[in-house]
Design a protein that fits this description.
alpha+beta; four-stranded antiparallel β-sheet; 6 helices
C-alpha cells in the first residue's frame, strides 16, 4: 500500500488535471517525478513586472514552479516564479503562501490563489516580500486588479458539458459569464472575495 504522502501526491495530480485540463488561464506545462513532485504552471493572465529601465509594465504570460518537498503536505509547497512579477508577496526566490497554507488545502486551490495574486485580485501589504511593490499597490488601488477575470476554472454546468460534446472550443470569456460569477458568489464561492488591502499607519 502506498504511503500517505504518495497517496496525497496521486490525489493532487488527479485534481490538478481535472481542474486545469481544459482551462486556458492556468495550464500544467511540466512535471517531474512519478507521481509528480515538481510542477510547472503557465498563467495566461495580466500581471506586472519591472522592465530594465525601471518602468512597471504589464505581462500576459507567467511561469510558476511548485516543488512538493518531503515535508509536504504538512509543510507548504515551495513556490517560485520563473518569470518576473512585481507584487508585494513575490520576490525572486519565492512566493509568500505561508499566511494561508494548511495541509488540508488542495493544491489546485493554491494554484488558483497564486493566479489571483499575480493579477492583483489578492495582495497583502502588511508583511511584504517586496516593499516597493507594497508601497505602489497601496498608492494605486484604483489601478487594481490588473486582470479582473475569474481565475478559477468554472464549475461544470449542463450547457458547458453540451458545448464540449458538440466540440465547440471553450475560452475563459465564453465559459464564465457575469451571471455565473454572481451565482457562485451567492453560493459562497471561495474565490469571490478579495483579500483586504492593508495600509501602513
Amino acid at each position: 500500500m502506498p504511503s500517505p504522502r504518495i497517496r496525497r501526491l496521486l490525489l493532487d495530480e488527479q485534481m490538478l488535471r481535472q481542474a486545469f485540463g481544459n482551462w486556458p488561464i492556468i495550464q500544467i506545462t511540466g512535471t517531474a517525478g512519478v507521481p509528480p513532485e515538481i510542477y510547472r504552471f503557465t498563467y495566461n493572465l495580466r500581471g506586472l513586472y519591472v522592465a530594465g529601465g525601471g518602468e512597471i509594465l504589464e505581462r500576459d504570460v507567467h511561469l510558476l514552479e511548485v516543488n512538493l518537498t518531503l515535508g509536504y503536505p504538512r509543510r507548504a509547497p515551495q513556490c517560485r516564479m520563473l518569470t518576473p512579477v512585481f507584487h508585494p508577496n513575490f520576490d525572486e526566490s519565492m512566493v509568500c503562501i505561508g499566511d494561508f497554507w494548511a495541509a488540508s488545502e488542495g493544491l489546485d486551490d493554491l494554484i488558483v490563489r497564486i493566479g489571483r495574486m499575480i493579477s492583483y485580485q489578492e495582495y497583502n501589504t502588511k508583511s511584504p516580500l517586496n516593499g516597493l511593490a507594497a508601497k505602489w499597490a497601496a498608492q494605486n488601488p484604483h489601478l487594481l486588479p490588473v486582470d479582473p477575470r475569474p481565475i478559477a476554472p468554472p464549475l461544470k454546468r449542463p450547457d458547458a458539458a453540451l458545448e464540449e460534446s458538440q466540440g465547440e472550443p471553450q475560452t475563459a470569456e465564453s465559459v464564465v459569464s457575469p451571471t455565473l460569477t454572481t451565482s457562485l458568489r451567492e453560493q459562497g464561492d471561495p474565490w469571490s472575495e478579495k483579500i483586504e488591502i492593508g495600509s501602513e499607519s
